[in-house]
Write a structure and sequence with these properties.
- The protein is mainly β and 326 residues long.
- It contains five helices and 15 strands.
- The chain has a 15-stranded antiparallel beta sheet that branches.
- It is elongated and about 60 Å long.
């Protein structure tokens, strides 16, 4: 893979927004807090371990220039359907208002022009996973997602630019191997496609935007209740509107310590170019995960929306099977 700075999304503001919501939802808050390595504890293949649960997700990313992105999501995981098979479904909605950025388009003039605009992103994601024996588990992902961004030039308010995506199939898959209680090795990949449409006063341009994300990692128990997680993420993107191709490889590193008979967990890590930390609290059938990320997605989004940001993501999970037993 070529070690090229990842800048393709800088000219697709509606797609860049996904780094603040859907990308994080697919990893899970536990994985985010310990360095974002979705190949291990955030792998699609492990959702069967969370059967009979319902959850609520919420997150916010705020930049120092007052740009803000927020999302909410709700999800549910089925009971054991067949030989450990479980299906997980989650729906997400993200919104950002009065966002300031700089964009290039024929209808805005030459070079990058400062604009203000509103954006949104909506998605439905389905995952299925099951153990297949000898410590191996497999999982798949299919998703439906659409994004929009509408902006007006700060220089000439009569100049506008609009982006939206039309859905194209997006899929993913993962496999993990846990030979014993101390080691977990995993690989996760996904391939997203969108038909992107850009409209300004000079006309409309459209083309396929495709991206691939490939994660590899290993998690190891280093002492009682302590886990170290090491991995890497490779990202490729092709955008037909801007005739661009990029690829990038970044590290993931995390640590987690469980306390008080696993009722509390503390974690920290480094996700591509973003430091992270978080915790989990568990009581009976209820489970709360929280994570903080400094400069979320900076390796992918760059300074499109600002130079520094703070992100908080939380998930509340309820095990309804445990409630029935009570």
């Amino acid at each position: 893979m070529l070690l090229i700075p990842y800048k393709a999304m800088g000219q697709s503001p509606e797609l860049a927004m996904r780094n603040f919501a859907s990308v994080q939802i697919k990893k899970g808050v536990r994985a985010i807090g310990m360095g974002g390595n979705g190949a291990t504890w955030g792998n699609y293949s492990l959702i069967y371990r969370d059967t009979s649960t319902a959850l609520v997700d919420a997150g916010i990313t705020t930049y120092t220039n007052n740009n803000a992105f927020s999302f909410t999501a709700v999800g549910v995981t089925t009971t054991d359907l067949w030989h450990g098979l479980a299906i997980y479904a989650i729906a997400q909605s993200q919104y950002a208002g009065n966002i300031s950025t700089s964009l290039s388009s024929p209808g805005l003039g030459s070079g990058s022009v400062p604009v203000h605009g509103d954006g949104s992103d909506q998605g439905i994601y389905l995952k299925a996973a099951m153990p297949i024996g000898k410590g191996f588990s497999v999982g798949v992902l299919v998703s439906y997602e659409r994004s929009q961004f509408n902006g007006l030039s700060d220089i000439n308010p009569s100049d506008y630019i609009r982006y939206h995506t039309d859905w194209r199939p997006s899929v993913g898959g993962g496999i993990t191997w846990q030979p014993n209680k101390k080691i977990l090795i995993g690989f996760r990949g996904k391939y997203d496609t969108d038909w992107e449409v850009r409209t300004d006063k000079t006309g409309t341009a459209s083309g396929l935007n495709s991206s691939g994300e490939y994660r590899l990692g290993i998690a190891m128990v280093v002492w009682e209740g302590a886990i170290i997680d090491i991995g890497g993420t490779a990202v490729t993107r092709n955008n037909q509107i801007y005739n661009s191709n990029t690829s990038d490889v970044r590290p993931n590193l995390g640590f987690e310590q469980h306390l008080w008979k696993r009722h509390l967990a503390l974690r920290a890590g480094f996700d591509e170019s973003s430091p992270t930390c978080g915790f989990s609290a568990r009581y009976g059938s209820m489970h709360l995960d929280m994570a903080y990320i400094r400069d979320l997605g900076m390796a992918r989004v760059g300074n499109l929306y600002g130079t520094n940001s703070n992100s908080f993501i939380a998930t509340f999970t309820l095990n309804f099977a445990a409630i029935k037993k009570q």
